[in-house]
Amino acid sequence: MPGPQPSDRHVPVMLDRVVALLAPALQQPGAVVVDATLGLGGHSEAFLREFPEARLIGLDRDPDALRLAGERLAPYAERTTFVHAVYDELPGVLAELGVPAIDGILFDLGVSSMQLDEAERGFAYAQDTPLDMRMDSTAPTTAADILNTYSAADLARILFQYGEEKFARRIADRIVRARETEPFTTSARLSELVRDAIPQAARRTGGHPAKRTFQALRIEVNGELDVLRRALPAAIDALALHGRIVVMSYHSLEDRITKQTLAAGTRTDVPDDLPVIPAGHEPYLKLLTRGAERPTEEEVAVNPRAASARVRAAERVRAKGLVA
C-alpha cells in the first residue's frame, strides 16, 4: 500500500492570506517567487496554481522534504527549481541561478509536519525518540551532542535565551549531573528530568513542562535565529521594486526579529528636523500587515498546528542599490 501523500501530511498554514499578500507581485509574466522553507510544498503548490506565469525557486535544508515536494509539484516541473540550501544562502543561490531580483518570498518558519510526524527525527517531546532534532539530517550536531558536551552555563544560556525558560539554570545543573551517570540519547529521559526540575506549581501552566527546553535545543541545533537574522535582510535586498516578503513565525523570538527587521526598512535614517529627505534615504519598505496577523479560530480548529502562527508582510517601495 502506498504511503501518505505530501498533501495528506501537511496542511499549509494561513494559505489564503499568504497567497493574497503575495498576489500583487506575482501576476506579471516571468515573476519569480521564492519559497525559502519549501517543506512539503503546500504553499508553493498554491503559488504555482494561482499564478500560472510565475516561476518558483524552492529552498530547503532537508533532502527528504525536497524529494517529497518535487514529487508533489511534478505537474509544474517546467516552472520550478529546487535547491538544497538553508535560507540564509539565498544570495548565493540566486547568483548561481542567474536571477538578479525576485518578486516575492515566503518564510514559513515552523517545523514541518513531516519532521514532527517522523519520530526518529527527535522533535517531539511527547514521544521517546532519539535526541536528534536536525532539520538537515546531514548536519554534524544533534541535540544529544549538545546535552552531553555543553557546560552548565552554556546549557542554561540557550534554555533561557531560546526557550525563555525561567528555570534554565536548575534544568541545566540537573542535565550535567545526570549525564555523569549516563549520556543522554533519547527524549523521554530528558522530558522526565525537565518535569522533575520544575516546581510543581509551575508545571500547571504553559503547556508541557519540556516544551520550552525542546524548543531551545531545536533552535541551537539548527542555528535558527542566527540564520534568520542573516536571511531576512538578504531577502529584502533581493526584492525587486514592488516585490513582497511574507514571514510566518511560530514563537516570539522569531516574530521579534521579523518585526524589527521589517520596521527598520520603513524608517528613514535622516534627522527628524531635516526638511527634505535626500534621495536614497527614503524608507525602502511599506508594511502590509498591521502588527502580526493570526489564523482564524476556524483554521485552528481544523489544524491545531496553526495555533501559534503569526504573519507579517512588507512591500519594497524603493529600488535596489539605494539602501543605506
Automatic annotation (TrEMBL):
<feature type="binding site">
    <location>
        <position position="87"/>
    </location>
    <ligand>
        <name>S-adenosyl-L-methionine</name>
    </ligand>
</feature>
<keyword id="KW-0489">Methyltransferase</keyword>
<feature type="binding site">
    <location>
        <position position="60"/>
    </location>
    <ligand>
        <name>S-adenosyl-L-methionine</name>
    </ligand>
</feature>
<dbReference type="GO" id="GO:0070475">
    <property type="term" value="P:rRNA base methylation"/>
</dbReference>
<comment type="function">
    <text>Specifically methylates the N4 position of cytidine in position 1402 (C1402) of 16S rRNA.</text>
</comment>
<feature type="binding site">
    <location>
        <position position="108"/>
    </location>
    <ligand>
        <name>S-adenosyl-L-methionine</name>
    </ligand>
</feature>
<dbReference type="GO" id="GO:0005737">
    <property type="term" value="C:cytoplasm"/>
</dbReference>
<dbReference type="InterPro" id="IPR029063">
    <property type="entry name" value="SAM-dependent_MTases_sf"/>
</dbReference>
<feature type="binding site">
    <location>
        <begin position="41"/>
        <end position="43"/>
    </location>
    <ligand>
        <name>S-adenosyl-L-methionine</name>
    </ligand>
</feature>
<dbReference type="InterPro" id="IPR023397">
    <property type="entry name" value="SAM-dep_MeTrfase_MraW_recog"/>
</dbReference>
<feature type="binding site">
    <location>
        <position position="115"/>
    </location>
    <ligand>
        <name>S-adenosyl-L-methionine</name>
    </ligand>
</feature>
<dbReference type="InterPro" id="IPR002903">
    <property type="entry name" value="RsmH"/>
</dbReference>
<comment type="similarity">
    <text>Belongs to the methyltransferase superfamily. RsmH family.</text>
</comment>
<keyword id="KW-0808">Transferase</keyword>
<dbReference type="GO" id="GO:0071424">
    <property type="term" value="F:rRNA (cytosine-N4-)-methyltransferase activity"/>
</dbReference>
<keyword id="KW-0698">rRNA processing</keyword>
<protein>
    <recommendedName>
        <fullName>Ribosomal RNA small subunit methyltransferase H</fullName>
        <ecNumber>2.1.1.199</ecNumber>
    </recommendedName>
</protein>
<keyword id="KW-0949">S-adenosyl-L-methionine</keyword>
<dbReference type="Pfam" id="PF01795">
    <property type="entry name" value="Methyltransf_5"/>
</dbReference>
<keyword id="KW-0963">Cytoplasm</keyword>
